[in-house]
Amino acid sequence: MSPEIRDKYQAVIGLEVHAQMLTKSKAYSSDVNEFGSTPNSNVSVVTLGHPGTLPKMNKRTIEFAIRMGLACECDIAENQNFARKNYFYPDLPKGYQITQDLTPICTNGHIFIKDDEGNEKAIRLTRIHMEEDAGKSIHDVDVFDTLVDLNRAGVPLIEIVSEPDLRSSQEAYNYLTEVRKLVRYLEICDGNMEESSLRCDANISVMLKGSKEFGRRVEVKNMNSIRNVQKAIEFEIERHIEAIEKGEEIAQETRSYDALRNVTISMRSKEAANDYRFFPEPDLQPLIIRQSQIDTIQSEMPALPRDLFIKYTKELKLSEYDAYNLTDSKEIALFYEEIISNTKNYKSAANWLMGEIKSYLNHNGFGIAQFPIKAKTIAELITIIDDGKISSTTASQKIFPALLETPEKSPLTIAEEMNLIQDSNEDALLLMIEEVIKNNSSEAERYKNGEKQLAGFFMGQLMKASKGKADPKAANVLMRQTLDKL
Ligand code: ADP
Ligand code: MG
Predict the structure, then answer these.
(1) Contact 172, 225 (CB under 8 A)
(2) What whole-number distance in Å separates Cα of residue 23 and Cα of residue 18?
(3) What is the 82 CA–ligand 2 centroid distance (Å)?
(4) Scanning 157, 263, 422, 471, which has its CA 20 to 30 A from the CA of 291?
């Protein structure tokens, strides 16, 4: 497609994200909520919807939904009502899902993302509601039959629905990255799109730039990574533009993304859409959320990535790049917080964490939880560099590797044991400098006659004589003073 044609159109995108809650039990029963158990092992008569069984609301799901709502500055509804969404599917044993139709627990929030120019942009949330997952139909294990695993049936979900505020596939990518970061920081969902504990349906339309009226939307499902959501949206945008340019109408339909071929395929048209016949769930009484309950949850909220980002850039004066990397994962951010509670050298702490430590972790395929050295020890290492006791080269080349071997030792002890403490003691330095000048008298003579660049040569001789232990900063000052006095 030519850039000129593409440039005539504006894409409009709204995302629906389903997140599986990390509760111990299911949404409305005590069945275990666990990924990867033996198929159909976490299935009781409640999950199966046998006559006479009754659902019971999992309190933890409500707490998790409120956490997400507070993180997105939503209004939290006082009255929680539940509804039945009826449809027939083999992996839905009850024949309906218990969801929140007209009374979502959270409304009116927003999630901040970076737009394509790198500016902050608020994406409004229409709603966040609680519901339950269906089981899983497995089509690719048995050659003849579809297999059904009902372990997932009844797993608690929150659905986060955005307003159609996104304007490019990159913005959608950024939005999903933020959603995943949030649910992970809040510890309510593991955010794993490959295992589909986080799923996204993308609604896409295009319109002529400057138009006030949105185009007809298409919904795309079955993307198992954030990158694939971006690719599917990109494919749809181009497909819509090509159709409109040819004078064709866009059919309102649901499509499925095929990652292997990077195309979307029609699944069903909206005309054939299900009539869910929502009605109030008679077996689950309405719930009331008290302000005191919300206040308690608020008081236990962890630091959020955006708050930390603002702290790192505004208070600690780190670059946006550093702040973004440090807040990318909660574990890294917490480790950083622990280092800087023991040193004020914020920049150096960031450099150690994103440099030496990250490459050690990447090299070994470790997470920060498996990093052997304590944050406090890293702070001690930074302190002895700043005190001039060791150079940063010595720290990264000698002390850091030694610390990995014996993480219980202090960096200072290791530096002493390995005889790496720099000499910044003036008298000792001065003696060495004088010795070096005496041993290189012809160069000293030339320096005296104006060849000032020879200072570098003398510094080199001094570092050699001190076996690299002279503190270069202090030595340089003293060397020039001594040479200039010749
Ligand atoms: P449905 O159940 O039909 O999918 P929802 O209300 O759950 O409806 O979701 C609608 C989603 O579609 C929202 O994320 C919304 O922002 C998005 N949306 C609505 N209109 C458009 C449009 N014209 N273009 C792109 N996205 C849209
Ligand atoms: Mg939808």
Answers:
(1) no
(2) 15
(3) 19
(4) 157
CB 94 within 8 A of CB 84: no
CATH topology for 426-484 is: Arc Repressor Mutant, subunit A (1.10.10)
Residue 264 CB less than 6 A away from ligand 1: no
Ligand nearest to the CA of 16: 1
Binding site membership of 101 for ligand 1 (Cβ less than 6 Å): no
Q: Cα–Cα distance between 367 and 135 in angstroms, integer? A: 31
Place of tokens 């749809």: 236
Rounded CA separation 97/159 (Å): 13
Prediction pTM value: 0.87
Q: How many CB atoms lie within 10 A of CB 396?
A: 16
Query: CATH 1.10.10.410: which residues of the chain?
Result: 426-484
Q: Is 287 exposed, middle or buried (0-12, 13-18, 19+ CB in 10 A)?
A: middle
Residues 6+ away with beta carbon under 8 Å from 362? none
Are the C-beta atoms of residues 168 and 116 closer than 8 Å to each other? yes
Count CB neighbours of 43 within 10 A.
Answer: 22
Distance, CA 219 to ligand 2 centroid (Å)?
6
Q: How far apart are CA 225 and CA 200, in angstroms?
A: 9
Segment 123-177, tens digit of pLDDT: 999 999 999 999 999 998 999 999 999 999 999 999 999 999 999 999 999 999 9
> Using a 6 Å cutoff on CB, does residue 200 contact ligand 1?
no
Contact between 5 and 241 (Cβ < 8 Å): yes
